[in-house]
Batch of 2 targets.
Target 1
Amino acid sequence: MSPSHSLPFDAVLFDCDGVLVDSEPITNRVLRDMLEELGWSMTLDECMATFVGKAVKDEVAQIEAHTGQRLTDAWLASFRTRRNEALDRELQVVPGAPTAVRELHEQLGGRIACASGADRIKVELQLAKVGLAPYFQNRIFSGHETPRSKPFPDVYLAAARALGVDPRRCAVVEDTVTGARAGIAAGASVFGYSPGGLSHSSAAALRAVGVREVFVDMAQLPYVLGGHASHVVGAASA
């Protein structure tokens, strides 16, 4: 059932990983294995705590410091190939995301976008894999194609500009501190998805950087955006 009144936003800008698709455990398992091949051993939990919400291309200095090896373009290309193969085999949609995307797409006349810090090939592969691609046709934005990646606001500013919407009239849906900072820096109202687990920043961490509301059920997002957060069963409180 859709919210009973219009949204107080002109557009909704979604992050991808952890918000629309449950990709972080898959991506970080591949990354953990490849870093171990370079000599940096860690558990999957440690890898996720270090890299969730960040683009590997932006963490080259840290990886080189731990491994003592220079990361080449060939290594990065190999990582993306192995990552994409694993995603294509195993990726699942975030529960409730199809409902939220469908309802918001309808309410806003299509003024929704996916603004990710990941490379475009990954984002398009993932949205197609889980059946969400039709809702984001020509409205996918990659931090790899902007001057700066998250936590800078560039990818959200690009998405708002393409939709012809003032970023201050946009709602941004994020699940990590890095992404939330990007949305806030863009001037948008940021809503934090934090259902628990290492794939997402904690509710407390998201609130600490200034998100407007934290929620735990993606299917309830239209209600949260419409100001019904107090009525959402399971709304995050810690």
Note: Residues 28 and 48 are 6 Å apart (CA to CA).
Target 2
Amino acid sequence: MYCGTFTIVARCERTGMLGIAVASNDLAVGAHVPYLKAGAGTIATQAFFNPLIGLEGLQLLEQGAGAEETVALLVQADDGRDFRQFLVVDRLGQAAAHTGAECIDWAGHLVRPGFAVAGTMLHSDETLRAMAATFTANSRYDLPERLLLALEWGQAAGGDRRGCRAAALCVVDREDYRYLDLRVDDHADPTRELRRLFEQARQQGLLDQPDGRPTRDNPIGNLTMLQQRAKLLRRGVGV
């Protein structure tokens, strides 16, 4: 299956969070494209995507390989390399990417400190330039907001030349579970719908600071916060 798309993968220098934002005319990009592992790195696989690239790439990152080494090893091992596109950010924020010669135009990638952007079947490289500039200019925000802003500006700059109907935003922090995982499929304006879901998640407390969440060392999380929310829920008040 071919997945024409535009994508950003990144690490937050301030918090260490890792994340991916992606949009496409193809369905289920939130299931097919993002691969993330807290403390290891993140990979997006697209064009004629291969899920094994995501899985094997994460194993390499967990074993200590950097982004460039991971890309080199994945390219070397893949006979379909000319038809693949993937981008990697490692646990230290180093980024690398690969765009095969047979990816459908416009196709390419940009690599910057802490993040990479890539796309296939785009109107032009303006999509990636807009994403990179937006992500860089908004460092005051936490990673989920920066990723979503980059996706929105990529869409505004042209995006997928077939139009978009699916989008996703995935972030991990310090635990194995995903800090945030939002997906939109078969929608007339998926990036706008993703923004609506994102703001709703913020209102419902899904973007609370990670220190309040359960961890292996502290499975109950922030007990005071849990008690306060339980009281509100018992009173029928939304939180």
Note: Residues 211-239 form one domain.
